[in-house]
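Quick check before the chapter quiz. The format below is the same one you will see on the exam, so make sure you can read both the input and the output lines.
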Amino acid sequence: MEAKKNCWCGLEVGEQAVRLCLLSESRDSEQRAFGNDPAEHQALADWLSAHGCTHIALNPVHPGWKPLSSILKKRFAVKIIEDRTITQSRAGQGECRCEWLAELLRTGQLDKLDQVEPIGDRTPHTDEDALGGQPGKGPEHSGEKGGR
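Here is the expected output.
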């Protein structure tokens, strides 16, 4: 039985297409593009599985990245990597960063980054939330001394 190779994938989700670069242990790379629709997302996941992919760095260029991310997270280790999260030193504006992302993932340079969804997708919290839903009550650890 042949041992499964580790492969890493850099993915960029655009409006019309999902571009990717698959990088193997031997540093062979293969670049492909899939459509950005549910049937193509499933075909992409199947293709990555067939090629032994284990880790994916996903750059969400287009807001439609979430359905693809949901499919991929069921089968692979996925990191969501936004442009502001990583240095743009090796990849110019407008270029596909797929191969570069796959290489960063392979070398472990993305391991220290948290997998955090964009700020706009988080639920906003109020001071009342932080205080257990008690409006008008200040934090008990405010540093003020009582009884002046």
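If your answer matched, good. Confidence is low (pLDDT under 50) at residues 88-94, 116-131.
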